[in-house]
Every structure is written in C-alpha cells, then in structure tokens.
Amino acid sequence: MHKTALVVGATGVVGRELVRQLCENPAYGKVIVWLRRTLPWTHAKLDTRLVDFQKIAMMPPEPVDEIYCALGTTIKQAGSRAQFLQVDVQYPAAVGQWGRGAGVPRFLLVSAPGADTRSRLFYLRAKGQAEQTLKDCGYQTLDIFHPPLIAGERVDRRLAERFAIALFRCLPHNWLASYRPMTGAQIAERMIAVAQHQTHGVQLHRLRANP
C-alpha cells in the first residue's frame, strides 16, 4: 500500500527537496504540503494547501503515515526573536500536536547540531525546545536530524555562511567530516531513506556528508 506523507516547510532548501523526492518515490501515493504561499510546480501526487499555521489545531484529522517538518527561519528574516520562535518552535509544536491527535505514527524533524534547551545560545536553545515539545507528543517514532551546514540556494543566505561553505568544500574530506556542508537534496534523501525502516521511540540522526 502506498504511503501518504505530509510536508511542512516546503519552500526551504530541504523542504522543497523533500517534496520533489517524495513525489518521485514509488513508496508514496500522496504528498500533502501545508504552506503559506504556493509552490511554483505541480505533480500528480501533490496536494498543496494554504494554511494558517496559527490555526493548525483547527485542521481536521486525516490519514497520514509520516510528517516531515523542515520549518525554519532566521531572526533577520523573521524580524524579531518572538517571530523566530513562532516559526521554529511554536509551528512545529502545533503540527506535532495535530499529527499526534490525528494518529500519525511517525514525525521526522530537521533540527540542528547542539540543540539543547539549556544552551546559552538562543538559536540552539530554541531548537532544543522544538525537539523537546515533539518528544512530549509521544509519537510512535520521532526521527530528529542534525545536519551540518546546509549548502543550497537560500534567498537570505548570509556572507559568513557562504564563506564557511566555500571553506569547508576546500578541506580534505576526512577533516571535520561532521561539519562539511550537505545539500538540501542529500539531507532529504537521508530522511526519506530513514523513513523506510520501522523503528520505535526517539531516534537522533547526526548527518554527515559522504566522503
């Protein structure tokens, strides 16, 4: 039987690759996407819906096998710390709670290395809060992914990030392999591959680029 996947955060570097690869994967018969603006392409398996993420709790339940969450922003893009927390913590939590109530068995989250509710760094503390909220939902399987730097065409990419990615690409492949950048396509591929194996509980996946 073909699976149904729900993707949130589909307009980002990882999210759009998740949508593309899920649509091309024969294991999936339907790919639902919740977003705030339309996607620039269509597919026979694709079911896109414009939603208000502040009203996720009001969304009716429907059969979904896996939720892929690639929501994320920057403080600069969001405009304030409060708006950042809304996108990176509150929205994933709302989607997680909706999915748990709808009986979705598996949730896959893109987070960040070093995510910790006790971190002194605001960004990592926020990511840790998002992870903890989803752990508290009690999914049959919760997959948390910690990718290194993400290489891809980001509209809001900062100069420092571009420099870091260029630097790491010049380094030997066996040096700091855990920190070498990965593309959105590579991260999406790993996530979908993980979802094809039955596991239980909270699974942490520390991703690293292939040598």
Strand and helix map with partners:
Elements: E1 3-8, H1 13-24, E2 28-35, E3 46-50, E4 66-69, H2 75-78, H3 81-102, E5 106-110, H4 122-137, E6 141-146, E7 150-151, H5 159-170, E8 182-183, H6 184-195, E9 201-206
Parallel strand pairs: 1-2, 1-4, 2-3, 4-5, 5-6, 6-9, 7-8
Helix pairs in contact: 1-6, 3-4
Notes on the protein architecture:
There is one protein chain. It contains 6 helices and 9 strands. The chain has a single domain (3-206), classed as Rossmann fold (3-Layer(aba) Sandwich). A 7-stranded parallel β-sheet has the order 3-2-1-4-5-6-9, sandwiched between helices. It is α/β, with parallel strands linked by helices. α1 packs across α6 (184-195) and α3 runs parallel beside α4. The model is unreliable at 153-159 (pLDDT under 50).
Features of this protein?
two-stranded parallel ribbon, 9 strands, 7-stranded parallel sheet, alpha/beta, Rossmann fold, 21% strand, 6 helices, 211 residues
CATH topology: Rossmann fold
Unreliable spans: 153-159
CATH architecture: 3-Layer(aba) Sandwich
Instruction: Give the number of helices.
Output: 6
Structural class call reads: alpha/beta
What is the name of the CATH class? Answer: Alpha Beta
Q: Major β-sheet, in short?
A: 7 strands, parallel
String of helices and strands: EHEEEHHEHEEHEHE
- Helix proportion of residues, in percent? 25-40%
